[in-house]
């Protein structure tokens, strides 16, 4: 291969990249951010409404109402994922559905549903945490590090 041929290929690749970039649709950043903000906020408002329901109707103390609230949101997320609703809604809403606890539950339920044909042990059990596993691991490591720092700061006082 001579130098002219290699230079010609590089120029063609650059020209192709320029042409592709010219015809690539521009992302609708403002609309996507607005949808994510509204949907994420709506999910959080639902969580707050559930928390208030558990306090007023079921007699939970406000500081303990978070546990059944989170469990309810996880249940609803898994149910809607199983019905195929959450994923379609997530494609439209974007990051607004991924950030709250419902997005975490969706990632686990989606992986479990995707691999259910492989069986309960190797499929569902083995692949359920393939997406969420890194979140669990790094969340645990971060919590441990913060706990150590917190303990050291209290020892210094």
TrEMBL record:
<feature type="transmembrane region" description="Helical">
    <location>
        <begin position="133"/>
        <end position="156"/>
    </location>
</feature>
<feature type="transmembrane region" description="Helical">
    <location>
        <begin position="29"/>
        <end position="57"/>
    </location>
</feature>
<dbReference type="Pfam" id="PF03862">
    <property type="entry name" value="SpoVAC_SpoVAEB"/>
</dbReference>
<feature type="transmembrane region" description="Helical">
    <location>
        <begin position="93"/>
        <end position="113"/>
    </location>
</feature>
<dbReference type="InterPro" id="IPR005562">
    <property type="entry name" value="SpoVA"/>
</dbReference>
<feature type="transmembrane region" description="Helical">
    <location>
        <begin position="69"/>
        <end position="86"/>
    </location>
</feature>
<protein>
    <submittedName>
        <fullName>Stage V sporulation protein AC</fullName>
    </submittedName>
</protein>
<keyword id="KW-0812">Transmembrane</keyword>
<dbReference type="InterPro" id="IPR014203">
    <property type="entry name" value="Spore_V_AC"/>
</dbReference>
<keyword id="KW-1133">Transmembrane helix</keyword>
<keyword id="KW-0472">Membrane</keyword>
